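To whoever is covering the structure queue this week,

Two jobs came back overnight. Logging them here so there's a record in the thread.

Job A:
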Amino acid sequence: MRKEYDFSPSRKNPYASQLKKQITIRLDEDAIAYFKTISEELGIPYQSLINLYLRDCAATHRKLDLNWK
């Protein structure tokens, strides 16, 4: 290994704006259990599955049908 490395020709990450942002969100235990069950079947982490689902909802402009009485 070198003692020093020259990073002067480097450039910023072009995908930096697409990186994920960590947030805190409160979910019901039922919802978490549901996504954990599906994630075990598919073999992907449940957080990734929730992210994929929310991304799909945003991409298709899906809206929840709420009718308050």
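Job B:
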Amino acid sequence: MSADPSAAYRRGFLASLPFIAMIAPFGLLFGVVATGQGLSMFETMAFTVMVIAGAAQFVALQLMQEGAPVLVTILTAAAVNLRMAMYSVSITPYLGAASLWQRMAIAYCLVDQSYVVGVAEFARQPGWTLRERIAFYWGVVSPIVPVWYASTWGGAAFGKAIPKDVPLDFIVPITFLAMIAPLLLTRAQIAAAAVSVLVALVLWWMPYSTGLLVAGIAAMLTGALVEMWEERRHAAN
């Protein structure tokens, strides 16, 4: 059943609300860590507004503090964010016909939550028009992005007042597990996830977290090989 754009927007807004409980502590933690490691309020906010990708921000910040070469920092953060390129490919059939300025805004706001919720809903609503899909997407994004900015600012401004025994860092792995686990549906996806975890753990000793680069490449190769194997098996049958 098709919905009008305003109804689709409300649906997206409501669908994104559960993520706020994870995004707010995530942003708060980044603000605390960034200012705790010497970044000014302006630098912290510029970082979070320009990158708008929590995992890559934490990795880049850690490498910067370790004195890693700029190229290593950029490559490692890019590897962490490489999933965004795959998100873009996956979501293009639903939103690719939007205007240029809309695609630019959609790309900027393409984060884990907007992708996961958006693609799942678009698949459930094949009758939606482009306007309805875009409205739903903005409904998802509209609470997420401001909360990310505000929570980062809150962590940077008031981080010193947060008791040290409050375990904010637990929210990082929980956030990604909650989002990624439901998406592991095929053998290729499960194999890629398993290999990435295993390689990252085995190569923990590599300097400047470059083990993440190797883990990302190994995961992509594994996923591609498993998909090729399955295609050949189906063709043989």
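Note for Job B: The mean pLDDT is 85.

Please reply-all if you pick these up so we don't duplicate work.
Q.
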